[in-house]
TrEMBL record:
PANTHER family listed in its UniProt record: 2,3-DIKETO-L-GULONATE TRAP TRANSPORTER LARGE PERMEASE PROTEIN YIAN, SIALIC ACID TRAP TRANSPORTER PERMEASE PROTEIN SIAT-RELATED
Membrane spanning stretches: 7-34, 54-73, 136-164, 170-194, 215-237, 243-262, 274-296, 316-333, 361-388, 400-423
Keyword vocabulary terms for this entry: Cell inner membrane, Cell membrane, Membrane, Transmembrane, Transmembrane helix, Transport
One function term, GO molecular function aspect: transmembrane transporter activity
Record's protein name: TRAP transporter large permease protein
Domain called TRAP C4-dicarboxylate transport system permease DctM subunit: residue spans: 7-417
Keyword Cell division included in the entry's annotation: no
Localization in the cell: Cell inner membrane
Free-text function comment from the UniProt entry: Part of the tripartite ATP-independent periplasmic (TRAP) transport system.
Subunit structure: The complex comprises the extracytoplasmic solute receptor protein and the two transmembrane proteins.
InterPro entries for the chain: DctM, TRAP_DctM
Gene Ontology CC annotation, any one: plasma membrane
Amino acid sequence: MESYLPIVILFVLFLMNIPIAFSLIASAMVYFLFLNNSIPVTLVMQRFISSAESFPLLAIPFFIMVGSVMNYAGISRSLLAFADAMIGHRTGGLAQVNVALSTLMGGISGSANADAAMQSKILAPEMTKRGYDLPFTAAVTAASSSISPVIPPGINLIIFALLANVSVHQMFIAGYVPAFLMAISLMVTIAFIARKRHYKPSRSEAATAKERWQYFLAAIPALLIPFGIILGMRFGLFTPTEAGAIAVLLCTLIGVFIYRQLGIRHLPLILRETVQGTSSVMFIIIGAMVFGYYMTLEQIPHNVAAALIELTDNKYVLLLLINMLLLVVGMFIEGGAAMIILTPLLLPAVLNLGVNPVHFGIIVIVNIMIGGVTPPFGSMMFTVCAILKVKMVDFVTEVLPLLLALFSVLMLLTFSESLVMLLPNML
C-alpha cells in the first residue's frame, strides 16, 4: 500500500490549499526520496527539465498570448457588437449575447478564465444596468465561459492531445459540435428564465439587415482567425504550435491596422499576462509529468484500468462511472490539473473497451469545464464572483439550472460517439 502513499499526500496537500504544481512535485519527491531509492535524484531532476522540452507545448504560451492581445486589440468589443446585433432583441437579450460572445471568443482565446474575466468587466455591468440580477449575471457569465475551451484553439484540447498521443487537429475539429450544443442548451435555459422573470431584451426591436451586415463586416477579421487556423493545419501549412504564433500575428495586425486600438503601450501588459498564464500552466504540467513518472513505475494506471474493467465490460457504463469521478474531482481540483492527473490513469481502461480517444477527450474536457463552474473550488466561479463581488451562496442558487443544461449535453456527448466524431469523420 505504500506505493499509493504519494497519491494520499497529494490530496492532503490539495485540501490544505497548497498550489497544485507544488502539491504534485512534493508528493512525487516523497516517493523518489524515501520510497524508491533505486532511481538517482539526478535522473528525477532531468525529468523536471525534459518535461518542458516539448515543441508542441510551445502552443500554450502562444494561445495564451492570443487571448491577451485580443482584449487590447478591440476584437472582443467587435464580436460583442456583432452578437448583440444578431440576438440582442430576443428575450433575455444581453444574457443571450453573453453566451454568443463566449462562443465567438472561444475560437480565438480558448481560455475559460480569460473569457470569464473579460465578460465580467465588459458585459456584466451592462447587464446589471438593464435590470438583470447580479447573481444571475455572474452565473450566466461563468457558465457561458465553459464553452470557450471546447472550441479550438482551446489549450485543454492541445494538452489532452499530447497526453493521449492523438492528433491535435482531430481534437480541434471534434470540439465544434459539443461547443455549439453547450451554447444552444444555455440559450434555451436562459430564455426560459428570462421570460419567467420578465428580463427585457437589450434591443427594443431586431436590428435591420443593413445593421447586421455592417456589424458582420466589422467582425469578419476576428471571425476569420479560427477558420484560418483550422484550414492552415488541415492543409498542412503549419503545425498547431506554429498556428499559435500565426494567431498572435493575425490578432496583432488586426488590432493595429484594422481596429487601430492596439499600441506599443500594451506590449508590457500583454507580455506580463502571457508569462503569468504560461508559468502557472507549465508548472502544473511539469509537476504532473514527474508525478506520472512515479505512477508509471508503480504501474498504477495499469492497476486502475484493470480495476475499472473488472467493474464492468460495458464501455458506456464505464464512461458514466468516469463522468461521476471527474465531476466529483472537478469540484475540488482545477480542471486542467484534474485532466493532466487523471487522463494517464483512465485512458488505458477506455481504450481497452474500444472507446475512441478523441471522443473520450471531448467528454473529459466538457466535464472539467463544468467542474470549473461548480463549488467549492470552480476556477471560473471564483473569477466571476471575485470581480463582480457576488456571494458564493447566491451564485450557486442561480447557476443550478444552467449546470443542469450543461449536464444534459455532457450525457448526450457521452452516449453518442457518432455525434462527437461527426466533423472529424467527415474531414
